[in-house]
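Journal club side-thread
Mid-discussion, someone asked how the predicted structure for our own chain would compare to the paper's figures. Pasting it here so we can look after the session.
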Amino acid sequence: MAEYAAAGRSIEVPAQVCPDCGRALTGWSGYWRWLRDRVAHHVWVRRGRCPACRSTHALLPDLIHERRLDTVDVIGVALARSIGGQGMRRLAVAMDVPLSTARGWRTRHRARAPALLARFAGLAIRLGDGLADLPTTVEAAAMAALAAAWSRARDRLRDGIGGMWRFWNGVCGGRALATNTDPRLGIIRSSR
């Protein structure tokens, strides 16, 4: 995290395609934003512009969740602990985040759990996992499906895949906890 923040504007982003029309994006400057990983960092986020449809997009790295201050590793660990039974007050103190922030993550995850379960169960099955013995609660089942999909993807790609929470964020396009209700904009959209 500190390395990413220290790189500032010199961050290089590989070629990207427009999520709206599939054509190549061109560089379109960027913006500074805060990102917290126990410590606040000021990070540069590149933007891309599609010359065809004229839309612009923030090119978020896999450690940044859209519209969230904290890194995906912090959010993911907090979600796993809260779903595992840790109380929200104790969790907020341990993660050094406001209680309202931790509750907000859990509330959004609870609302998105059915879609997350469908997304990661489908991915795990396509990658060869049978998903035997999923937990009975939707939130816990979504976490178990995520772990299974990440494990299978890691087996196939070896060093080409990061940690589970960055995998979660990448598969969901940075929107795992998004507030939108339009499936075309959320995690259920088809991949190209």
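Post-session note: The CA atoms of residues 177 and 192 lie 22 Å apart.
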